[in-house]
Amino acid sequence: MKLERIIFAVLLLATGGAVAYYSGSLPGMTRAAEHRFNFGGIGRGNGQFEYPRALAVSPVDGCVFVIDKTARVQRFSPDGKHELTWHMPEVKNGKPTGIFIDQQNQIWVPDTHYARVIGFDRDGNELFSFGERGHGPGQFIFPTSVAIDSAGFIYVSEYGGNDRVSKFTPEFEYVMSFADDKAGAGWMNRPQTLLIDDDDIIWATDSCGHRICRFDTSGKFLGALDIEWPADEKSGFSYPFGLDEDDAGRLLVSDRGNNRIVRLQKSGKVDGIWGLAGRAETQIRQPWAVGAGDGSRVYCLDSWNNRVQVIDW
């Protein structure tokens, strides 16, 4: 590892910092991350971004959807070609910070500053909307993420006074809330992204708690993931925001405050870290989200650099 560090330092100096670091000798790794291409760039034109904060990859066709602070939802092909843009219906109060795509290719947008969830088809036609502002059952303050379990129940995370996850029937009827300030060790301080795996385990980024939490579909807290960090890596998350699962069942976390993407087994064992803070070709700044594409492809929402970086991992 010392030799690897020396090689990395030489590369860093030679390229002016345009090297993304990958810990290639972590136990259990299969291959190093390889940067493929970027798409985006600052601006308000099609295919450009102004501070993008939400990204999701369709499980149906692999298209990539990105939302930026102009409240535009943009659809890209898996290879980063711009295909479509539409705008959220209201923008004065603020813009969304999350997006989810289901197995029917419906686009679920937690309309963060309007205390609701809006559903669209892949072409931007509105299909449904539910939620209202408040602290009561089924109400929201700032919703951030949506996930759906194998029975079709809908889960919505939020922050801003509620800091909880609420469960709804497929018909949008309120069922229960959990992970709130009455949940003891299971309380999450700004849950940002939800993920439900094939075993119906609910994974959540507790962003201001700097951890990854697990729940069952009854809302029972199953514990925070005990991360096994490599000895020579910076341990601990710093505002983990984005979360996804790759084809191999590993978790991908956009560790926003540490300017990196962390890949880990569901046991908590880290088996990959990609990222180096900066603005050069393969550096990242404040990644809000991460999405798993087909096979080994990973999409990193490089928010402060107004682009999406695509790597094979």
Quick summary:
This protein has 1 helix and 24 strands.
Helices and strands, with pairings:
Layout: H1 2-14, E1 34-40, E2 52-57, E3 64-68, E4 72-76, E5 82-87, E6 100-101, E7 107-111, E8 116-120, E9 126-130, E10 142-148, E11 154-159, E12 164-168, E13 174-178, E14 191-196, E15 202-206, E16 211-215, E17 221-224, E18 240-245, E19 251-255, E20 260-264, E21 270-274, E22 289-292, E23 297-302, E24 307-312
Antiparallel strand pairs: 1-24, 2-3, 3-4, 4-5, 6-7, 7-8, 8-9, 10-11, 11-12, 12-13, 14-15, 15-16, 16-17, 18-19, 19-20, 20-21, 22-23, 23-24
Task: Describe, in plain words, how this protein is organized in 3D.
This protein is mostly beta strands and 313 residues long. The chain has a single domain (2-312), classed as Neuraminidase. Helices cover 4% and strands 40% of the residues. The chain is built from one helix and 24 strands. It has one helix at residues 2-14; strands spanning 34-40, 52-57, 64-68, 72-76, 82-87, 100-101, 107-111, 116-120, 126-130, 142-148, 154-159, 164-168, 174-178, 191-196, 202-206, 211-215, 221-224, 240-245, 251-255, 260-264, 270-274, 289-292, 297-302, 307-312. β7 and β8 (116-120) form a beta hairpin.
